[in-house]
Every structure is written in C-alpha cells, then in structure tokens.
C-alpha cells in the first residue's frame, strides 16, 4: 500500500495509544524481541522469510503456556488506516485465543496490507468470506470498559497492543 | 389519568431523579457530546446514514427471503437456524440445546434481545448457572436490577455504588475501590465462569444473510471469549437484524459506535460465521492448541415475537430499522435526566422504546413512559437509520388514547373540544390538544378569562381534574388578537413599493398571547420592503398532535392548508414565528397532507428570522432595523427549529446587526408545549430546564438580554431566570 496509508495508519495507532515498530523481514527477530514481554506465545506467521522459530516466542502453545503468557503474537491479515484497526482471522492454529488471552497482543502486519478505509476493508472481507465462510475480528486498540465508573483499558481482552509493520512485505 | 395516579407518577419520577439522575446525566451527556464530535469527523455522515437506511428498508422488505437465505448459509457453514415465534418458543428451544449439551454453566455476552425473552430466568429455573460477562450487565446481575440504558446498562450506577455492591456481595480480602480494581476483579471472577462454561450465548448486532455471519459490536472482549471458550454457541437475534450481504455491514460499522457512545469504533467488531474452526481451549488439557478440539456447534435463534406483525404495520415498520445504538436516548433531554428506569418499558428504553415495546410486549408496556417523548425531535437527525422516532411515539400515543374509558369529568372540556377523537381520551390530553379553541375563547372573554384562570379556586380545579400544575403561571390571553390588530391597521407597504409579498401565519400563541412578537414581526418585514398580510388561519394541528390526537391534527392540517393555499398560489411567502408550527409544515404535514400539498406549503414557508436573513442577503437594508450596538444577547433556539437546521439564521441576523450573541447548547428547554404544565411532569420539566438556566446564569451570560424562538422556551426561561425574555424579532423590530 502507499506510504500515505501507512502514515495514516500509524497516526491512528498513536491516537489509540497503540505502539508500533517498523522493521524488515531480515531484522524481524530483533524487532520482535523488543516488542514482547515474556513469557510469550504465538501462532505461525504467513510472511515469507519471517518466522517465530528463531525467537523466544513459543509457537503452538499448550493451554498452560497460553495461560501463563504475558504476550501473544499473531499475524494481522490486514489493517485499516483511518481507524488504526488490525484485522485478525480466527483459525484452526489458534490465532483467536493467542490474540485474546494474554495481557499484551503483538500483531505482525505486512505494510502492503494496509488498506485506506472501512469501505475497502469490507470489500476485502466480503471477497474472502463469500468464497469460504470464516471469522474475522476488526480490532481497534486495547480492550476497554467504562462500566466500572470510568474508562479502564484491559477488560476481558488485552490491555496493550503493539503492531510490528514489515516494510518489505 | 386520575389526580392520584398523576401524583404517584410524579413521585416516581422525583425518586428516579434523586437516586439515579446525577449518574445518568453525566453519562448520557458525555455520550451525546461524544457523538456530535465523532460524527463530525466523518467525511460523508449523511451519505452513510442514507445507505444504512436504504439497506434496512430493503432488508425488511425482503425479510422472508433473507430468513430462508440465512438458513441455507448457516447450515452450509455447519450450524442450525431456529425461527422462534415468541419468547416461550425461543426459551424452550434454547433450554433443549443446553440440556442436550448437558451444560451446568452458560456464559452470555450482552444482548437486549435475550433480556426481551428473559432467557436467564428460564434457564436458571432449570438448573443452569447463567453469567453475564459484559461488566455492566454483570454489575446488574449482582445487584438484581434492570438495565437503565440499551447500550451501557449500568449508567445509573456510580463507581462508589459498584464498589459498595461488590464488597458486600463478594467480600474480597482487600476492599475494592478504583475502577481498575473493580474491573480486574470482575475479569478474574468471570474468567473462571467462562472457563467452566459449556455454552456461550451472544446476541448479534447484525446478521449477514449471504454468508451466515454475525457481527458483534463490543469493547470488552467478552463476546470474543464467550464464543472462543465454549464449544456450543447460541446466538439470539431478532429477525430484523438480517442484512442481505456481508458488504452491507460497512456503513453500520462506521455509524454504530459513533452514534451510541461517541466512539469512532468500538474495540472489537467480531464477524463470526459459526461454528468456525478456532480451537476451544481446555485449560486442564495438555495438548497444544493445534491439537485441541474444535468440534463446535452453533444455533442461530431468530426471534419473531411480534416483529413480523410490526413489518405489516405501516406505522411501526420503521422501528425494525433500528440498530439500537442509543443515540435517541442520549440526545433526549428527558432521558438525560431520568434514564431508562423511568423512560423505558419492560425491556427497551429511550425514544424508540415505544415502538419496540408496543411491537414486542404490547402497547400497555409503552403506555408507562410514552408521554416522556415530548416530540422535540432532537433525536431525529441523530438516528443513523433516519427513523422518525417522534412520529412513532405519536402514533402509539394515538392508539393508547383510543383505549381509554370515558371520564366522568369529560363535561369540563366538552365545550371546547370539537375534535375528531373518541370519547374516553384522557381529559388532560383533550385540554391541551384543543388549545387552539381554548385560546379563541380566552381572547374573546379576556380579561375575565385571565382572572378566572388565575384564581386560586380555578387553579385547584385545573390541577385536580385536568392535571395542570398550579406552580406554573398560565399564559395570559390578549383581548385583541394579532389578526384583529392587523385588520384594523392594514398593510403599510403598498403593492407597487413591495419587493415581496408574505403572509404572517398567525400561530395560536402569537395570535392570542404573544401578540407583541407578531406586531414586531410585521414591522420588521415591512421595514425590509415586504407587503405583509395576516389572514385568519386555524391552529396548525401541533397541539393535538403532541397529545397523540392524530385525527384532529389531520383535520387541522387540511384546514390550515386550505387557508394558506391561495396565498401560496399567488406567490406569497408564508412566514412563521412559532418554530413548532413551522416544523408541522415542514415535517409532519408530509404525513397528513397529499404529497403535492405538503411540498407546496413546505417550500413556501420560512421561519421569521430565516426570512429576515434571506431578505438581508438579497440586499434589503439592514439599517432599517434596530441595530444592537454591541448589545449582549443570550439566545436559546428551539428544539424543532434546530432539527430543521434553522438556528444559525437567527444568530447570523443578530450578529450582522451588531448584537453580541451567545447561544445555549442544551437539547431542549424542557417545557415542550404542554409537557411542563402537566403536574406529573413538572419536576422533570424543571430539571431539564435547569441545565438551560445554569448556562444563562454563567458569568459570561448573566448580564445578557435573553431571547428565545419558541413560546414554550420563553415561558420556561421566564420561570427560571429573573430577567424577562423575548423573541429575537423583538430585538430587531424598528419600532423597538
Ligand atoms: S431509533 Fe435510531 S437512534 Fe434510536 S436506538 Fe434505534 S437506531 Fe439508534
């Protein structure tokens, strides 16, 4: 996607209190190491030349490992620039529990997957999900509640969100 | 209503105001401001609303077809669809699913539709533990209270109140105090319940028929967990939640959070096409996620419960377009004071609740609170699917009126009620609905009528039998009406000298009570080169319509049109002082007159200051009017005038004439025609008005001249402030 979309995406993240880092496939492992708080669990990443294998992140965790994790690392299928949203796809390997249970969620995103707006996002989701029904979570910022008398970040879901943007993917 | 039931109602409202008013007001006003700000950030807000509306119209039109389509798509995904006729049918089916799964515990994410069918009670009676995982709903479950708001159910509770409740109920080792501590505690407590649960129940904000996808709009993440952690998912959704295609969700996703709590988007928009393949996590198991069981079951329970009948009902059908965003509650001045415990029925609350309650529980459930809609129309432009919410309230009020038994005191109003309503109509409604007739009589017999009306004995009678609160000052009728004054005086601009010709519509207040503002308007328009006429014309129908007397309003609309049509045909503009009457011509006449008649009149009619603005823009001499020379003015526009987008014209005219203008930003003055006079609503009306009073008592406002466009607003302001107030046209009147 255009550099403009990425700039807008990062600006939106800023407004949401979501941190991010830019990196390349080659520098991914080092960047991720900075982005996670251990212990961390993850699900395999679909980007060429990018893997959790060389990191401290435990892939395909057991429930006990998931329960103990401080960070969950998943791929984001794409992102929506003007809202600062990442789109997650619950799947058999466990993207949904890994993104949902730990206090911190790190979403890994290819820069080419930043779309400008919600309308484009729904076009893309409709294309994907009409072919084969599936799930998607449009996640924008951390989980939050105002039900206890004032705004609190971190309700049932993660309290912190971080996005790793792969510039060359 | 008897004077005893009025007193009981007033007491209940006072109680709610005292116990919950503060928390409700802080929250709803916050949501309301948030909405204005958030929708202001959209490039094409109106375009999104139009699309959302069109999608809903189409979906409800094709509903039977969409039900069949979603059945096929959900089944293709591996789930089941059950179409439940009513609450009992839905509950029976859900209990069977729970029994088949052998479930001890069911966790829920927030859903008003499950409140509507009271499924928790049904399941608990059969031995299942049911837990609400939305933190607001959880608070209410612990407190054993009902939601006070359709989106944020516990807004009537303060943090201190919740802490007290939790500390007493759960007796934690360390007492809980901050919002963070309360949230953390609830997260852990409910986390355990979610882990135990076999069944997860959600609602659905939308259901896409083509893919069988549910859209859930949440921020806490509890809906995700409810679905993720359980292997059996039951979603309960009204049939009206269906939209044809997944792509159709786009405008709704952009609008719903902004319209509700003023968030651009909630943290999570979950799109589930269940059962899905995400592994359920057995926390006591050893196998890694990829080897965990993903043998999921899904049941979509589509609920009719009166909705298909609403679809056949030309007046209630629009209710089905509602996406339950809560904008109509948050933008409502009355709701802001009392919340859903007073302004709500069995399940739903706020402006649109009348439509929902009448449709799903029956009109009686709507009768409790329907009168709290004053028809101010502030919600109309806020609704993301453009529902005419006040109209639905009016229609249901009309239906309720027709259910009443004749009152033994009917004779009191008989003489002044040539209306088209059945006997049995509440005497108070008949009194206010026939205000046009009353005003005629009042002027004809003034000043005797004024003396009589203000005598203690009559005030007691009026309070006891008609329910007019004796703490309100009654309007005082002028012996000489505006029409009579003008007939004597004649026009002062000759036909040759005239740039334009206009008729000043003699609304009932201007003609009989506030004649001075009428005279000021005549002089103002004449000074700008307009040849003015003030013909006889009937009351517009606003008074009966506000009481739900639709047939009477319909007759008056025809008569008013007949009285004005010739002038419109002759190319004369129709100038209106009272904004609520102008709103009749522009909005409600669309429903009461043939299309062409409505359009003709609406196109030709203007609010008086809007008209002055147009004249000045077209070169009329501003110096012919009374300039302000920097005079400081506090201006309260009128609710219906603002809905028509006509508040800015008054400000612009005053500023152009060198007045220094400060404008109020409350939604409504709280008087709303007859509302503030009614003894059961007096306290609420004052509470709403107090917001306006406070603004005008601020340091920057308290020395300003007070002006307001509506009669009701002027009456309310007079009762709130020690300064007198008047109509803006009286400021610029060259005869001032
Ligand atoms: S009627 Fe409109 S504003 Fe009110 S809750 Fe429904 S969608 Fe929202």
Can I get a quick summary?
Chain A is of the alpha/beta class and 169 residues long.
Describe the structure.
- The complex is a heterodimer of chains A (169) and B (736).
- With 169 residues, chain A is of the alpha/beta class.
- Chain A has one domain (3-166): 3-Layer(aba) Sandwich (Rossmann fold), CATH 3.40.50.10420.
- Chain A has 5 helices and 12 strands.
- In chain A, the strands form 3 sheets. Chain A has a 6-stranded parallel beta sheet, sandwiched between helices.
- The model of chain B has no long low-confidence stretch (mean pLDDT 93).
- In chain B, strands 1-10-7-4-2-3 form a 6-stranded parallel beta sheet, sandwiched between helices. A 4-stranded mixed beta sheet of chain B has the order 8-5-6-9, with helices on both faces. Chain B has a 4-stranded parallel beta sheet with strand order 12-11-13-14, sandwiched between helices.
- In chain B, β5 (206-208) and β6 (213-218) form a beta hairpin.
- β9 of chain A pairs antiparallel with β9 (268-272) of chain B.
- The structure holds iron/sulfur cluster (SF4).
- Iron/sulfur cluster binds at residues 259, 322-328, 351-352, 382-385, 387, 389 of chain B.
Question: Approximately how much beta-strand content do the residues of chain A carry?
Answer: 25-35%
Specify the structural class of chain B.
alpha/beta
Largest sheet of chain A, order of strands side by side? 1-12-7-4-2-3
CATH architecture of the domain at 55-307 in chain B: 3-Layer(aba) Sandwich
The CATH superfamily of chain A is NagB/RpiA/CoA transferase-like
Please give the domain count of chain A. 1
- C-alpha geometry of chain A: globular
Count of alpha/pi helices of chain A:
5
Number of H/I helices of chain B? 35
Could you tell me the mean pLDDT of chain A? 94
Identify the bound ligands: iron/sulfur cluster
How far is the N terminus from the C terminus of chain A?
Answer: 10 Å
Helix content of chain A: 25-40%
What's the CATH superfamily of the domain at 55-307 in chain B, by name? NagB/RpiA/CoA transferase-like
């Amino acid at each position: 996607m255009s550099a403009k979309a990425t700039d807008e995406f990062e600006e939106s993240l800023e407004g949401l209190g979501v941190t991010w880092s830019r990196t390349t496939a080659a520098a991914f492992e080092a960047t991720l190491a900075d982005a996670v708080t251990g212990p961390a669990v993850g699900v395999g990443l679909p980007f060429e030349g990018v893997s959790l294998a060389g990191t401290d992140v435990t892939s395909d965790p057991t429930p006990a490992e998931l329960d103990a994790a401080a960070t969950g690392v998943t791929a984001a299928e794409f992102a929506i620039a003007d809202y600062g949203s990442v789109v997650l796809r619950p799947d058999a390997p466990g993207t949904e529990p890994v993104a949902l249970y730990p206090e911190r969620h790190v979403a890994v995103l290819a820069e080419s997957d930043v779309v400008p707006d919600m309308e484009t996002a729904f076009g893309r989701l409709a294309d994907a999900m009409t072919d084969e029904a599936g799930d998607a979570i449009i996640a924008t910022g951390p989980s939050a509640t105002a039900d206890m008398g004032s705004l609190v970040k971190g309700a049932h879901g993660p309290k912190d969100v971080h996005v790793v943007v792969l510039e060359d993917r | 209503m008897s004077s005893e039931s009025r007193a009981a109602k007033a007491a209940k409202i006072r109680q709610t105001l005292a116990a919950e008013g503060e928390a409700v007001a802080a929250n709803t006003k916050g949501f309301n401001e948030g909405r204005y700000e958030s929708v202001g950030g959209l490039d094409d807000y109106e375009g999104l609303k139009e699309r959302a509306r069109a999608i809903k119209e189409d979906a409800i039109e094709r509903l039977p077809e969409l039900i069949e389509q979603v059945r096929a798509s959900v089944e293709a995904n591996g789930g089941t669809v059950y179409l439940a006729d009513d609450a009992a049918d839905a509950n029976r089916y859900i209990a069977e699913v729970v029994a088949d799964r052998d479930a001890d515990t069911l966790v829920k994410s927030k859903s008003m539709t499950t409140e509507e069918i009271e499924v928790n009670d049904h399941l608990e009676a059969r031995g299942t533990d049911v837990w609400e995982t939305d933190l607001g709903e959880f608070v209410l479950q612990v407190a054993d209270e009902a939601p006070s708001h359709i989106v944020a159910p516990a807004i009537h509770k303060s943090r201190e109140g919740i802490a007290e409740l939790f500390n007493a109920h759960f007796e934690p080792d360390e007492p809980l105090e901050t919002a963070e501590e309360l949230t953390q505690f609830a997260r852990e407590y409910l986390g355990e319940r979610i882990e135990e649960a076999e069944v997860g129940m959600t609602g659905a904000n939308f259901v896409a028929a083509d893919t069988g996808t549910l859209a859930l709009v949440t921020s806490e993440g509890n809906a995700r967990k409810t679905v993720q952690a359980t292997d059996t998912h039951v979603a309960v959704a009204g049939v009206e939640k269906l939209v044809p295609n997944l792509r159709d969700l786009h405008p709704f996703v952009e609008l719903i959070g902004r319209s509700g709590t003023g968030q651009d988007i909630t943290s999570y928009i979950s799109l589930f096409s269940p059962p899905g393949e995400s592994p359920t996590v057995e926390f006591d198991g050893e196998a890694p996620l990829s080897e965990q069981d993903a043998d999921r079951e899904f049941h979509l329970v589509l609920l009719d419960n009166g909705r298909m009948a609403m679809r056949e009902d030309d007046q209630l059908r629009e209710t089905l377009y509602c996406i339950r965003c809560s904008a109509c509650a948050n933008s409502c001045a009355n709701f802001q004071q009392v919340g859903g415990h007073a302004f709500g029925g069995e399940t739903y609350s706020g402006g649109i609740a009348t439509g929902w309650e009448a449709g799903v529980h029956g009109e009686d459930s709507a009768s409790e609170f329907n009168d709290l809609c004053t028809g101010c129309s502030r919600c109309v432009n806020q609704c993301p699917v453009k529902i005419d919410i006040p109209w639905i309230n009016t229609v249901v009020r009309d239906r309720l009126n027709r259910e009443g038994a004749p009152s033994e005191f009917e004779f009191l109003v008989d003489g002044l009620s040539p209306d088209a309503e059945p006997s049995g109509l509440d005497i108070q409604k008949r009194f206010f609905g026939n205000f046009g007739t009353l005003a005629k009589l009042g002027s004809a017999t003034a000043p005797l009528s004024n003396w009589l009306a203000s005598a203690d004995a009559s005030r007691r009678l009026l309070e006891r039998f008609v329910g007019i609160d004796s703490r309100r000052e009654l309007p005082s009728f002028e012996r000489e009406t505006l029409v009579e004054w003008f007939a004597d005086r004649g026009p002062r601009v000759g036909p040759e000298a005239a740039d334009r010709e206009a008729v000043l519509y003699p609304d009932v207040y201007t003609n009989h009570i506030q004649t001075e503002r009428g005279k000021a308007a005549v002089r103002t328009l004449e000074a700008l080169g307009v040849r003015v006429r003030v013909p006889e014309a009937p009351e517009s129908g606003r008074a009966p319509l506000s009481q739900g007397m639709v047939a009477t309003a319909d007759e008056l609309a025809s008569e008013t049109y007949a009285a004005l049509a010739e002038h419109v045909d002759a190319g004369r503009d129709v100038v209106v002082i009272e904004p609520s009457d102008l709103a009749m011509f522009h909005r409600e006449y669309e429903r009461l007159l043939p299309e062409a008649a409505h359009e003709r009149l609406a196109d030709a009619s203007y609010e008086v200051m809007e008209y002055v603005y147009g004249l000045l823009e077209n070169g009329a001499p501003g110096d012919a009017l009374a300039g302000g020379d920097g005079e400081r003015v506090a201006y309260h526009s009128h609710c219906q005038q603002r809905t028509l987008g006509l508040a800015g014209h008054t400000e612009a005219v005053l500023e152009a004439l060198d007045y220094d203008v400060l404008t109020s930003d409350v939604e409504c003055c709280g008087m709303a025609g007859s509302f503030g006079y009614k003894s059961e609503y007096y306290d609420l009306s004052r509470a709403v008005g107090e917001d306006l009073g406070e603004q005008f008592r601020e340091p920057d406002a308290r020395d300003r001249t007070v002006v307001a466009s509506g009669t009701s607003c002027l009456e309310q302001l007079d009762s709130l402030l020690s300064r007198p107030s008047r109509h803006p046209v009286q400021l610029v009147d060259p005869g001032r």
